[in-house]
């Protein structure tokens, strides 16, 4: 059995969970799949995720699990895994997962493979993950007894490809004991809830700018296009390093990994560090004066030209 650990916060499901479900369905090859929802007051999230084509949804509900702490989640999931006995545990590669998954794997003395971007069915090394900031990909096989822990890179698997069931999967509660006195941490506010921060991984449309914007005073043209598309504004690393946009809007290997339905790249050349962060986008549109820019190799649609001529025309067209 494959166990997917869903991620939710304050009763809102993280969309990356659907990506992990899609990965589990790809890996399953006939194995049953269960989903675990962890937290407090999670009935609504469990009902939402029960739409997936899985064997069942199990809830791990305890007041000691709200707010999130790695101690609490590790204690609860260790008990749940002991009862369910999955062969593989799949989690989305989010900030929260990166916080507690290594601790959980170490607690159970099991292998952990992080940031998986693809699954090769029938292979002796079925999991593919990037190395050296995406310059290389490695085929990896977990060693040691089950369960093996796998985290899936945001955007590597398509959320809309997760199969839904004809009827809702059954939901049942798991009885676990979490001792609140044993939880040592008192967490600060999560990263994406910091003042003025944005979680680009949840955006359906993104307008991203690169060096081709030339100067900070030219940013309003990109911002107007984002507003016309009801999109989030993002940037490549040089723009954020220059302080033209805050760092939380950086896309790439040292920023956020995104997988929107539409990614519009304005004046972005397409360095590998940036491509790593946005290659999972459903539709990529690139505008660049250089016809040989690497961004065109991954773009679904490419426009060779001056963005300061093309973008205003796009904005006018969107207004009509």
Tell me about this structure:
The protein has 320 residues and is an alpha/beta fold. It has 2 domains: 2-187, Rossmann fold (3-Layer(aba) Sandwich), CATH 3.40.50.620; 200-319, TPP-binding domain (Rossmann fold, 3-Layer(aba) Sandwich). Helix content is 27%, strand content 23%. It is built from 8 helices and 17 strands. The protein has helices at residues 16-28, 43-49, 70-84, 95-108, 219-229, 237-241, 272-278, 307-319, and strands at residues 2-5, 8-9, 12-13, 33-39, 56-61, 88-92, 112-116, 118-119, 127-131, 136-140, 148-152, 171-173, 205-209, 232-235, 262-266, 283-288, 301-304. It has a 7-stranded parallel sheet with strand order 7-11-6-1-4-5-12, sandwiched between helices. The chain has a 5-stranded parallel sheet with strand order 14-13-15-16-17. The protein has a 3-stranded antiparallel sheet with strand order 8-9-10. It is elongated, with a radius of gyration of 21 Å.
Shape: elongated
> What is the CATH superfamily label of the largest domain?
HUPs
What is the typical, i.e. mean, pLDDT?
92
Query: What is the share of helical residues?
Result: 25-40%
Give the count of structural domains: 2
Number of strands: 17
Q: Strand arrangement, largest sheet?
A: 7-11-6-1-4-5-12
SSE topology string: EEEHEHEHEHEEEEEEEHEHEHEEH
Q: Beta-sheet strand percentage?
A: 15-25%
Q: What is CATH's topology name of the largest domain?
A: Rossmann fold
Low-pLDDT stretches are none
Compute the CA-based radius of gyration.
21 Å
CATH class identity of the largest domain: Alpha Beta
- Terminus-to-terminus distance: 52 Å
Number of helices: 8
The CATH architecture term of the largest domain is 3-Layer(aba) Sandwich
Which structural category do the helix and sheet elements fall into?
A: alpha/beta
């Amino acid at each position: 059995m494959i166990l997917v650990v869903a991620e939710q916060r304050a009763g809102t499901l993280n969309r990356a969970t659907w990506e992990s479900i899609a990965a589990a369905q790809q890996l399953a090859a006939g194995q049953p799949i269960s989903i675990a929802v962890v937290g407090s007051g999670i009935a609504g999230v469990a009902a939402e995720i029960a739409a997936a084509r899985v064997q069942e949804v199990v809830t791990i509900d305890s007041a000691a699990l709200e707010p999130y702490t790695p101690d609490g989640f590790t204690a609860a999931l260790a008990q749940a895994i002991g009862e369910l006995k999955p062969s593989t545990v799949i989690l989305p590669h989010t900030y929260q997962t990166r916080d507690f998954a290594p601790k959980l794997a170490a607690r159970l003395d099991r292998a952990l493979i992080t940031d998986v971007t693809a699954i090769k069915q029938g292979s002796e090394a079925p999991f593919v993950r990037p190395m050296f900031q995406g310059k290389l990909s490695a085929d990896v096989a977990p060693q040691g007894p089950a369960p093996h822990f796998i985290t899936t890179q945001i955007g590597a698997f398509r959320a809309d490809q997760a199969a839904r069931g004809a009827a809702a999967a059954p939901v049942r509660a798991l009885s676990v004991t979490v001792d609140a006195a044993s939880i040592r941490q008192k967490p600060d506010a999560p990263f994406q809830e910091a003042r003025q921060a944005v979680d680009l991984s949840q955006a359906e449309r993104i307008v991203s700018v690169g060096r081709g914007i030339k100067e900070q005073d030219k940013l309003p043209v990109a911002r107007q296009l984002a507003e016309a598309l009801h999109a989030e504004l993002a940037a490549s690393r040089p723009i954020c390093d220059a302080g033209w946009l805050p760092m939380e809007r950086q896309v790439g290997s040292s920023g956020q990994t995104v997988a929107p339905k539409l990614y519009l790249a304005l004046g972005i050349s397409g360095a590998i560090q940036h491509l790593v962060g946005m290659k999972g986008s459903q539709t990529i549109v690139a505008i660049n004066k250089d016809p040989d820019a690497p961004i065109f190799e991954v773009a679904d649609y490419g426009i060779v030209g001056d963005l300061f001529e093309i973008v205003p025309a796009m904005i006018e067209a969107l207004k009509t």
